[in-house]
Write a structure and sequence with these properties.
globular, disordered C terminus, two-stranded parallel ribbon, 9 strands, seven-stranded mixed β-sheet, 12 helices, alpha/beta, about 425 residues
Length: about 425
């Protein structure tokens, strides 16, 4: 094509040669036409298409094929040295991207929300964006923070003083009424201190007295988010510092259940007190976070079965925060409660959706673990969260040896079963 175009121009040049200025002008015109054609052909030339890779949920694409099927596809019966590659690959996948420990760190955002915490790949973009960020820092720290701190101080002080005073009253309807007023009022003040915007859905399914409310756990403010719309008797671990002061004050006015996680005797006492609480249909619904620790608002991890052995009606609640306005996740191994509150009070706002779900009861023949998994699946679907079977206790503890032994048992059973099948006489089938 190039030779053809150049030949056409050269032929035209020969035909106009010797005609003086007219020939030069014609040559220039033809050359411009040829250049235009070349440019147009270059524009229309199809560009090499980039390889389209489907978006994955993580860094690597995992093969979810069970161990038995994958190894069986390599050989039939006997052990082979190549079997170790399956376990090596699983180990490499866990090292590159562990699906458990990443749930205990702040969720990475697709776009920057002009807060300090952002995507790890973010770098300096432009002076204009930097100026906008500086203005945001001034607004958040010099204007919003003092107002929020004032409201938080009023709310916390009112909570401690109010519950302490109400706790001195004798048990009765008056004490219960005043306790609910104090909890609701102070919770709403604290939500205002966080610039909270909470959207409650399906209020007809709100937990009733004598029931058990279970929810996924992202932050200590989960309790404030729910108490903003109704009162609960809370169950949780004893904390120190400011959180401990609040816990000791509120338990005087309301039958909350706080326990030490390290003391086994407390667990039996907690179960006994919970059963007594549920048996009384006039008491506030119990609020329990069965995960036992805070997860980073992307998934729901294993529910402890203790909450589902008590009996009674379970009221599932799904809580989902919008990370674009502020990170509500509390990494308790990295921040104490005061540092955490400072971080969320310097965010833009706390935007949250709460879904009250229809009550659930334990089915006939269903054990506590199966019931807990069914409730967890319902919460994960409603909140758009990833469901993981792992124990949230892995946040601070090592993997149990029983998990490793389970993989070893599965592999040994597969070899024994295949070996027994291979030793059968010809024409004989195994059960």
């Amino acid at each position: 094509m190039k030779l053809f175009c150049f030949g056409c121009v050269w032929s035209s040049l020969g035909s106009v040669k010797g005609h003086g200025d007219c020939g030069a002008e014609s040559l220039h015109s033809l050359y411009c036409q040829w250049a235009t054609i070349r440019i147009e052909k270059g524009v229309k030339k199809p560009q090499p298409q980039m390889l389209k890779i489907p978006a994955a949920n993580g860094i690597i694409e995992r093969d979810e094929t069970p161990m038995e099927k994958e190894i069986a596809g390599l050989h039939r019966m006997e052990f082979r040295f190549s079997d170790i590659f399956y376990f090596c690959r699983k180990g490499f996948e866990a090292i590159v991207e562990d699906e458990v420990t990443q749930r205990f760190s702040s969720e990475e955002l697709v776009s920057w929300n002009l807060l300090t915490r952002t995507n790890v790949n973010f770098h300096y973009v432009s002076l204009r964006l930097t100026v906008v960020w500086v203005i945001g820092v001034i607004v958040r720290y010099c204007f919003l923070l003092p107002l929020r701190f004032t409201l938080a101080a009023i709310g916390i002080t009112s909570m401690i003083v109010g519950t302490t005073v109400v706790g001195q009253l004798p048990n009765g309807s008056l004490k219960n009424y005043l306790s609910e007023v104090v909890h609701l009022t102070c919770s709403r003040i604290l939500v205002r201190a966080l610039s909270g915007t909470i959207h409650y859905h399906n209020k007809e399914n709100k937990p009733q007295k004598g029931g058990i409310c279970v929810a996924n756990h992202t932050s200590p403010i989960d309790a404030i988010i729910l108490t903003n719309d109704g009162c609960y008797a809370m169950v949780g671990q004893v904390h120190g510092g400011l959180m401990g002061v609040i816990q000791r004050a509120t338990v005087k006015a309301c039958p909350h259940v706080w326990f030490e996680r390290s003391e086994i005797k407390d667990r039996h006492l907690v179960t006994k007190r919970l059963r007594e609480h549920v048996a009384d249909k006039n008491k506030l619904p119990i609020l329990i976070f069965p995960e036992g620790t805070c997860i980073n608002n992307t998934s729901v991890m294993m529910f402890k079965k203790g909450s589902f052995e008590i009996g009674g009606t379970i009221y599932p609640v799904a809580i989902k925060y919008d990370p674009q306005f502020g990170d509500a996740f509390w990494n308790s191994s990295k921040y104490n409660i005061v540092s955490y509150l400072l971080r969320i009070m310097t965010s833009w706002a706390i935007v949250c959706h709460v879904w009250y779900m229809p009550p659930m009861v334990r089915k006939e023949g269903e054990d506590a673990v199966q019931f807990a998994n069914r409730v967890r699946s319902a919460i994960a679907r409603q909140g758009g969260l990833t469901e993981l079977p792992w124990d949230g206790g892995l946040k601070r503890a090592k993997v149990k040896d029983s998990f490793k032994e389970e993989q070893q048992k599965n592999y040994s059973k597969m070899l024994v079963r295949n070996g027994s099948q291979g030793n059968l006489p010809a024409g004989t089938e195994s059960d």
